[in-house]
Structures are given as C-alpha cells and as structure tokens.
Amino acid sequence: MSRSLNSPSTRILGALVAGLVLGVALAAWSPAAVPGVAAVAQPIGTAWLNALQMTVIPLVFSLLVTGIAATAEAARSGAVAARGIAVILTIMVASAVSAAILTPLFLDFAPMPAESATALRGALADVAPAGPVPPLGDFMASMVPSNVFAAASNGAFLSLILFGLLFAFALTRIDQAARETLTAVFGAIRDTMLVMIGWIIWIAPVGVFALALTVAAKTGTAAVGALLHYIVTVSSVGVAVSLLALPLAVWGGRVALGRFLRETSPALAVAFSTQSSLASMPAMLKATEAMGVPVATSGVVLPLCVAMLRATGPAMNLAVAIYVAGWFGVPLTFATLSAATFVAVLTSLGSVSLPGQISFVGAISPIAVTLGVPLAPLGLLVAVETIPDIFRTVGNVVFDMAVTLTVAARSDPAELTAADALLSDAPQP
Predict the structure, then answer these.
(1) Is the CB of residue 340 less than 8 Å from the CB of residue 315?
(2) Which of 183, 218, 351, 372 is at a distance of 20 to 30 A from 68, taking alpha carbons?
(3) In whole angstroms, what is the distance from residue 233 CA to residue 304 CA?
C-alpha cells in the first residue's frame, strides 16, 4: 500500500529523526542535562521494547505451525504447486546462505566506524553482554529441548523452533478434522498476536523517540552515522541477493536477459513505490504474460509466490543479526551461523505477508537469539526499516516473476491445467 504521512512507517521514522536531532542538540549544547533526560527516556524506550518482545514467542510458534500447514496443503494441489514450492524453498535457503557469506565480507570491507560502535555500545549500557561461545557438542545438544516450556520461558528460540518444526510436520499427518481444528487454534493465536503487535506498533513513535533521544544524547552524531552505515550494509546484501534472480530467469525461465529486464520494469516500479508484493501482482501478471506465460499458469504460480516467497527475507534478516553481532563484538562460529541460517529460512517462511515492522521483529529476534546477539538494538533499527524494505520488496517481486517463468518453462501443459483446477478448489494460503 502507499505510504501516507499517517502511516506507521512514516510516524516511526519521524520519531526517530526527532529523537536523534534533539539528542544530538542536547549533547552539544547541554551535556550536563543528558543524565537526567536519559533517566526518564531510557525506561520508556525499554518498556516499549519489552512489550514488543513479549509477543515474539507465541507469534513465531503460531506462524511456524500455520505456515508449514499451508505449505503442505498447497503441495497437495498438484505437481506444478509442488514444483513451485520446491523452487521457493531452494531460493530461500540460497538467500540465507548468501547472507551468511556476504555480510561478514561487506563488514570486513567497510566496517562500522570503531568510534560509532563504541559509543553505541556505551549508550546501550543495559544490554547484557554476550556469554562465551559454547563448545560445538554442547551447542548441538542444547538444540533439542528437554522441556519445551522451559525453552520458551528462557527464550531458547532454536530449541523452540526445532520443536515447532517437528510439531507442525506431525500435525500434517493426523486426521484431517483434528488437523483443521488445531491449525485454526494456532491461526487464532497468530491473529491475536498480530492485533497486540498492531497496538504496540501504534505507540512505537513514543518508544522509538525515547530510544533515539537516549542514544543520540549519549553518543552525539555517532548514532546517525551508524544508522546510515547499517542501512547501506543491509540494503547491499538485499541487492546482491536480488541479482541472483536474473540467471534464474535466463536459465530456468528460458528468457533473454534484456527482455526480462524490459518487461519486468513496470512491476518493479510499482514495488518500489508501494513496498507491497500484493499491490504489484497485477503488473507482475501482465509482465509474465508478455513473456509468454499463459494466464492460467501465472494465475497459479504467482499467488503461490506472493503468499510464500520472501526471497530477500532470509538474507536481509540474517544480515541484520550479523550486523548487530559485529556491533557488539559477538563471535560467530560455524555452528551458530549455520543454526541462524536455518532459523532465518523458517522464520521468513512463516512471516510472509506481514507488515514490515511486525515481520522485522518476529523474524529477526529468533535469529539474533540463536547468534547470542542482544535484542535491544532492534528497537532503533526497526525505525529505519522503511528504506531496506524497499529493496526487500523489489527483490521479492523480481524473484516472483523469475520463479513463475521457471516453473512455466519446466512444466507440462497438462500439469498446468490440472493444477489450475485443483487450486481453484483448494484453500488459499
């Protein structure tokens, strides 16, 4: 949807700018007042951040269960839908792996200025330092929870996600009536959490203003430079991953690169201006039809992509967590980075079609906890998500069209007709 002056993104970004400007001015002109202002503002920001975090565990678990149930249901719709899901899952895994490789390289090439990192760590002094990295054996053993309720209360997201994954797959194997009932229960929990998060996002300008004011008052202009560096780094990862859609369209979809770029440009323009894959669907349908995909085919595959595929999600979500790890000096091991890559794929699969601020917190928090990264910085970073979200959406849309071309080029016409008939009667994700 279009971003109006009253949209949550605009209000949150405005609160961030106001907090930064006032904090920088306070640090420059009245440094003696900084402790008093921080003593009032910091608890307000922390309380808002805690309110946001309290919804994450039930939201992530319910999204995981309902997301896998919807995926399994779509896969039963026929060979074309199953082939599309296989391509989608492959892309999301490749997206996360790309971020695990690219983000540390980008940070090595252009690291956050040391003075900014030090100043911001000092401003967030209440953030608990990361503990020592456990040995590989201990880490692997801790992935399997002995008590799932204890794992939830301790914020052990990796254990909780592993249990949720097994639970969701087991759910697909039980009696249909019981499966539908239990899925409806978790769907209701998901919707309830989304309503609660909507309320919390509504008051986000207050929390973000308080956090920004506190950080800027303690660090001066270092906070501004650090946020700009963050935006460029994470957006660069999204752009790099989005470029992988081009060889997929050329080799998988059997279309010339120039033609693909020319026909998709109107849909990409809509994605850039609206930051919505759903709003871009009419333009995507027109673009794929112009490249020779029958409407019956694109009408099956494109909605599936819009519902399930967030090609840039795993990459950019993991990039955020890795960025914060570098910010706070959290060491990254092969085991923790592999686990975080796995979590990034699952949480992105579950967080499809959610508003940017909600998916940001719900998808990144489990990744951050898996890496041993503090969650407090997310309260600031969510305020600038509007800019990286543009690159998220454009990347998702270009991959939606590349996948549609690939599935159409690799499918038999008889399969496409059967899939269209089956999906017309199947519940939509």
Answers:
(1) no
(2) 372
(3) 30
Provide CB contacts within 8 A for 339, sequence distance 6+. Answer: 139, 143, 158, 370
Backbone angles phi, psi at 385, to 5 degrees: -65, -20
| The overall pTM is greater than 0.85 | no
Q: What is the pLDDT of residues 202-230, one digit of tens each?
A: 888 888 888 888 878 877 777 778 888 99
Residue 378 makes CB contacts below 8 A (sequence gap 6+) with 49, 320, 324, 360, 361, 364, 365, 368
Q: Domain residue spans in the chain?
A: 8-425
- HEC readout, the chain: CCCCCCCHHHHHHHHHHHHHHHHHHHHHHCHHHHHHHHHHHHHHHHHHHHHHHCCHHHHHHHHHHHHHHHHHHHHCCCHHHHHHHHHHHHHHHHHHHHHHHHHHHHHHHCCCCHHHHHHHHHHCCCCCCCCCCCCHHHHHHHCCCCCHHHHHHCCCHHHHHHHHHHHHHHHCCCCHHHHHHHHHHHHHHHHHHHHHHHHHHHCHHHHHHHHHHHHHHHHCCHHHHHHHHHHHHHHHHHHHHHCCHHHHHHHHCCCCHHHHHHHHHHHHHHHHHHCCCCCCHHHHHHHHHHCCCCHHHHHHHHHHHHHHCCCCHHHHHHHHHHHHHHHCCCCCCHHHHHHHHHHHHHHHHHCCCCCHHHHHHHHHHHHHHHHCCCCCCHHHHHHHCHHHHHHHHHHHHHHHHHHHHHHHHCCCHHHHHHHHHHHHHCCCC
Token pair for 45: 């920001």
Pick the CATH number of 8-425 from 3.30.70, 1.10.3860, 1.10.1740, 1.10.10: 1.10.3860
Whole-number Å distance between alpha carbons of 353 and 302: 14
Give per-residue pLDDT as tens, 312-355: 989 999 999 999 988 888 888 888 888 889 888 887 876 655 55
Backbone angles phi, psi at 270, to 5 degrees: -65, -45
Rounded CA-CA distance 326/91 in Å is 26
